[in-house]
Amino acid sequence: MKVKSFFTLFFVFLIFEGAAQTLLFDEFYFEMPLSEAKKTLKKNQKKLTNISFGPQTAYAVRKKSLVSNEGALISINLWSKNNLTLQQAEKYLLKSKTYFESKGYKTVYAQENWSKPLLVKKNLPCIRFVDPNKQTVVEVDPRGQGSIHTIFVTYYNYEWFVKKARGEK
């Protein structure tokens, strides 16, 4: 009987431990130790180099994708897998918006010309989404010049992001 109680308590602890961690992306969670995040990246490298946010889009998590503060993961950046032409970058932006909204994310900020990389104001975010449970903020930004462009998708913890925006962090 004691063994059964021990296992019940053990599983309850695991459930609460997992619930306390806010998922950022895939197996990466907010404030995950950076060393653990690097191991997760290495373990899942193949899967994390071909991520889609809509048809005919490909993104990748790279070594520099993991953004930390004091050894804890605070955000994760994904890059478009390949360099894109201006037309491809515009399509990636449109498809990303469609993808996130189809998953229940709400658009909470978008520049007037968010789908036109050459018209996006560089000092402001391009387009920003929040998941239905207000756990995660996703920001999609184009970068590039001339004929070479890249699209970045960044995941943040919602509470951390709001505190940072208010100047509390």
Description:
This protein has 169 residues and is of the alpha+beta class. It has one domain (22-165): TATA-Binding Protein. It is built from four helices and eight strands. It is globular.
Task: For the structure shown, list the relevant keywords.
169 residues; TATA-Binding Protein; 6-stranded antiparallel sheet; two-stranded antiparallel ribbon; 8 strands; globular; disordered N terminus
- Major sheet summary line: 6 strands, antiparallel
Mean pLDDT: 88
Per CATH, the class reads: Alpha Beta
Strand order of the largest sheet: 3-4-8-7-6-5
How widely separated are the two ends?
48 Å
Helical fraction: 25-40%
- According to CATH, the fold-level topology is TATA-Binding Protein
Overall tally of structural domains: 1
Give me the count of strands.
8
- Count helical runs: 4
Which descriptor suits the 3D outline? globular
SS content category:
alpha+beta
What's the architecture, going by CATH? 2-Layer Sandwich
Give a short summary of the structure.
This protein is of the alpha+beta class and 169 residues long.
What are the SSEs and their pairings?
Layout: H1 2-20, E1 23-25, E2 28-29, H2 34-43, E3 59-69, E4 72-80, H3 86-102, E5 106-110, E6 127-130, E7 136-145, E8 148-157, H4 158-165
Antiparallel strand pairs: 1-2, 3-4, 4-8, 5-6, 6-7, 7-8
